[in-house]
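Page 37, continued from 36.
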């Protein structure tokens, strides 16, 4: 070996030093490096698992958001439907009240017209009585102031107005009797 430029003692010393270094590295350094690499592999694995979990949670959240949006849309449609129904109900109620008010107004107007007709007939009857008395005074030539004469004229006017109403209403069986009495 010396021909190659190597010394046996140096070679053995280097092998012993190499084995000591390998032993020290294997005893203390290699476990630290292995532990560090295992921890790093665990961190990477947890990161991958967390990323996968986050991805699943994101998909679930997107599904929940889509469901919430759909539910909100359905709730909005139901609220709109309820509002439409409430509006229709309110409109129908207002229409009913308006019809009732119109019927009340028509009924009150009819009553007022009937009262005015009755007053007009009463006034007309009184005026006809007064005219009949005046005409009778002119014919007879003296005053007719007694209550009996006035009652007689009013009965005649009432009878005449009843006959007039019966002749306008031919379904009344008394109309023929009244016409017979007038003749």
């Amino acid at each position: 070996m010396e021909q190659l430029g190597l010394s046996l003692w140096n070679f053995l010393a280097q092998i012993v030093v190499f084995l000591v270094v390998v032993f020290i590295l294997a005893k203390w350094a290699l476990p630290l490096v292995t532990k560090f690499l295992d921890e790093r592999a665990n961190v990477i694995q947890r990161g991958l698992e967390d990323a996968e979990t986050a991805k699943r949670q994101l998909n679930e959240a997107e599904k929940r958001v889509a469901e919430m949006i759909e539910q909100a849309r359905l709730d909005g449609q139901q609220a709109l439907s309820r509002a439409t129904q409430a509006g229709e109900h309110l409109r129908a109620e207002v229409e009913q009240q308006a019809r009732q008010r119109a019927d009340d107004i028509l009924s009150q107007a009819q009553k007022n017209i009937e009262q005015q007709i009755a007053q007009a007939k009463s006034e007309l009857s009184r005026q006809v009585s007064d005219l009949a008395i005046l005409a009778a005074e002119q014919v007879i030539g003296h005053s007719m102031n007694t209550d009996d004469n006035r009652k007689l004229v009013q009965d005649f006017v009432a009878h005449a107005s009843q006959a007039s109403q019966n002749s306008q209403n031919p379904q009344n069986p008394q109309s023929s009797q009244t016409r017979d009495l007038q003749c």
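Confidence is low (pLDDT under 50) at residues 172-183. Flag for discussion at group meeting. The two ends are 179 Å apart (CA to CA).
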